[in-house]
Write a sequence for this structure.
């Protein structure tokens, strides 16, 4: 929820802090490459006999993603450090503590990885992560987005618009919503061995939200392959919504005619609405959402004003024209 000083505009990839600048700060992290290094621009093929790959959670062995050439969003925003981005996470599948994911997610195998796409579409099927990466059109691929949880970050995600993937499955006119589901595997995801949430984790978007160009599928961060604790190998980012909408480690996408049940909305509907748009006028029942702190600022740093739609009102407010956003929160 950082303050946005202007509309998104093009930024050269050279303006993003280089990976070398973060090497010394990441001596305790291990972000091992998930099989062959892959990018949204160019993906390396993987041998059928290759062993299962892991993007482990500590260390700095992940090579830069090839073919990542430019960014188009977030000019002038100060990036959150790689250390904070990869060690302070919400990912209950690996534990409810903010430091649990980086400690516990090394067990997750991210190759091979397939996503089932079905529901109200003409061409349902299953697609592998490597095929997704190889088929996506070669356009802008790095985006500086504010990531909204109980804190605020600015993260240089590497990804592509969700719509590019959804279109290939030819959703029908009955597809009003898109449902997403996270992997359920308690052996790999120890947090799922406890009934903290109703597993597997589920999320959903209205169809027009899902097709908006700012709604991203993400495969990397800071020009390197996405670490497990950040949702490898494929996660969602919806920058104008609160962070729990940005589901991680996706294995299923379904086109629905009806509003899908989603994890936090079902668990606590008075606290976590289906839309979850960043709205300073709608308080959480237990705290105000009018201001926020930026992660890394320190306990005594001043708070920042929270902007409607997280500062993306110019791009997305039209999606909710005529809606009562205090009722549909």
């Amino acid at each position: 929820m950082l303050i946005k000083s202007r509309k998104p505009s093009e930024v050269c990839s050279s303006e993003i802090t280089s990976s070398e600048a973060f090497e010394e700060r990441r001596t305790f992290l291990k972000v091992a490459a998930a099989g062959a290094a892959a990018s949204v621009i160019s993906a390396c093929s993987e041998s059928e006999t290759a062993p299962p790959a892991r993007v482990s959670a500590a260390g700095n062995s992940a090579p830069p993603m090839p073919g990542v050439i430019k960014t188009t969003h977030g000019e002038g925003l100060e990036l959150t450090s790689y250390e904070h981005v990869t060690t302070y996470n919400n990912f209950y599948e690996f534990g409810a503590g903010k430091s649990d994911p980086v400690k516990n997610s090394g067990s997750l195998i991210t190759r091979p990885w397939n996503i089932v796409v079905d529901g109200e579409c003409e061409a349902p099927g299953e697609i592998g992560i490597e095929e997704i990466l190889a088929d996506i059109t070669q356009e802008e691929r790095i985006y500086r987005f504010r990531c909204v949880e109980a804190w605020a970050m600015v993260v240089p995600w590497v990804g592509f618009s969700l719509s590019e993937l959804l279109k290939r499955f030819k959703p029908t006119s009955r597809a009003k919503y898109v449902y997403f589901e996270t992997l359920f595997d308690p052996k790999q995801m120890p947090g799922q061995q406890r009934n903290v949430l109703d597993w597997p984790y589920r999320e959903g978007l209205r169809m027009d939200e899902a097709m908006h160009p700012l709604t991203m599928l993400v495969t990397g961060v800071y020009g390197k392959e996405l670490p497990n604790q950040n949702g490898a190998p494929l996660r969602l980012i919806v920058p104008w919504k609160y962070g729990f909408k940005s589901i991680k480690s996706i294995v299923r996408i379904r086109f629905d005619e009806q509003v899908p049940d989603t994890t936090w909305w079902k668990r606590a509907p008075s606290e976590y609405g289906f839309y979850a748009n960043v709205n300073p006028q709608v308080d959480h029942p237990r705290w105000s959402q009018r201001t926020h702190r930026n992660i890394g600022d320190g306990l005594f740093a001043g708070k920042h004003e929270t902007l409607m739609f997280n500062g993306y009102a110019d791009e997305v407010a039209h999606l909710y024209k005529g809606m009562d956003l205090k009722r549909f929160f």
Remarks:
- Residues 1-60 have pLDDT under 50 and may be disordered.
- The first strand starts at residue 11 and ends at 12.
- Residues 148 and 243 are 5 Å apart (CA to CA).
